[in-house]
């Protein structure tokens, strides 16, 4: 990843995940951080494919943020609150804070200010 070898990273990660290994929130967030810094559309596609390959619940959450309430079946604030309530803060407190910071950066860069506000409001209540 550090050297921009995104095409090689996805098969490696898929092998890792298919061998019953689980991607943790720190690894998922580290990949998301590369997406935040990404400058080229082709690399963005590769990074999104890599994030999807993680099969981490944070990816389903992130994708859900970009859908409408009809598809999510709940308002965005409830959706965000439910996700963060499902995090085990005893094990993942630092990872959760890292994820929130990177996610906020990503949402702002994508012009999703209202969604970023929802994440911020929930973060203030839980983190």
TrEMBL record:
It comes from the Eukaryota. This is Smr protein/MutS2 C-terminal.
């Amino acid at each position: 990843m550090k050297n921009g070898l995104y095409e090689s990273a996805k098969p490696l990660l898929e092998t890792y995940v298919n061998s019953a290994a689980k991607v943790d929130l720190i690894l998922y967030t580290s990949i998301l951080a590369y997406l935040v810094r990404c400058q080229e559309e082709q690399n963005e596609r590769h990074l999104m494919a890599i994030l999807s390959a993680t099969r981490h619940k944070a990816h389903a959450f992130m994708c859900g943020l970009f859908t409408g309430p009809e598809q999510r079946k709940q308002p965005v604030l409830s959706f965000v609150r439910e996700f963060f309530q499902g995090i085990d803060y005893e094990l993942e407190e630092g990872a959760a804070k890292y994820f929130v910071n990177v996610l906020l950066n990503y949402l702002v860069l994508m012009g999703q200010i209202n969604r970023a506000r929802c994440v911020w409001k929930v973060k203030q209540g839980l983190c």
